[in-house]
Design brief:
This protein is of the alpha+beta class. The chain is built from 8 helices and 11 strands. It has helices at about 30-40, 50-55, 65-80, 185-190, 215-225, 230, 245-255, 260, and strands at about 20, 25, 85-95, 105-115, 120-130, 135-150, 205-210, 265-275, 285-295, 300-315, 330-340. Strand 4 (about 105-115) and strand 5 form a beta hairpin. Helix 1 runs antiparallel to helix 5.
Length: about 350
Amino acid sequence: MAKTNPGRFFEDYAVGDVLAHAVPRTVSGGERALYHALYPARHALYSSDEFARACGLPASPLDDLAAFHVVFGKTVPDVSLNAVANLGYGEGRWRVPVYPGDTLRSVSEVIGVKQNSNGKTGVVWVRTRGMNQRDEVVMDYVRWVMVRKRDTDAAAPDPVVPELAKAVEPASLAIPQGLDFTGYDFALAGEPHRWGDYAIGEQIDHVDGVTVEEAEHMMATRLWQNTAKVHFDVGARPDGTRLIYGGHVISMARALSFNGLANAQMVAGLNAGAHANPCLSGDTIHAWSEVLDKAPTAAPGVGAIRLRLVATKGHAPFDLRGEDGKYRSHVLLDLDYWALMPL
């Protein structure tokens, strides 16, 4: 009996399957330090215990996207080990902050399958929940991934494509217990711009760029225990390149967005996301944002702002799609999310 795990292929998934992922992970300040070393992350709430306490939290949480990477990484051996590409995200909510000392684990349910017309691959939709040691759901989200078939002659399953909400309703966003921005220190946060200063439709060029190197990408995928072959093995892609983990692009773009959105402190909801084109070593990532919506919350001094975050290869602000409606070749990421910001 084979002892090794070749990973699941498209025909190994069926709607209703529940996948309990190995291995639980206890996070510490080490994850925060490495996250801030890999990305130019400077949001004050995740950098300072004292700043976080002044905002009503017991301490500085782990960056929301660092928690996402840990939860996501657990799913890779069961969901995307044989992936061609991770395609998109939706219906994501960060529900409980993650603090050093918390232990995270992940569980996914298959909610959709559809074979592609080439008969060589198919798309699998999963809903993943990340839970802490108290069985609290710290976050949940849907993602869909293109997976290779083991046997191209295997019968195609009946297609099931889940209907997903176009956006998370702002009223359903989870506000961390105790969060209070009424005494928010804008000087320490780095910018004076508050919720009321942003207008729907406003676009922000985040100006700065970061060139992605193989070394940092390999460190990131190992840190998040992302074992997808396309990130490690040059033989896994026809062109012999290693694909940069999409989450690496997300975190880089979010960190770059500090310049112009320093007070968009907490990521609370993930409405939609697409990895439009592959990112490879040597590419220079830039980012721009567009304000899509705004909503009040019940927390004192806290507003919700809906943002489109676009990462591009090279500096190309506000140039998203061509006349044919398709993403421009320089667009790497199109992410739609809710953030929490002081009023």
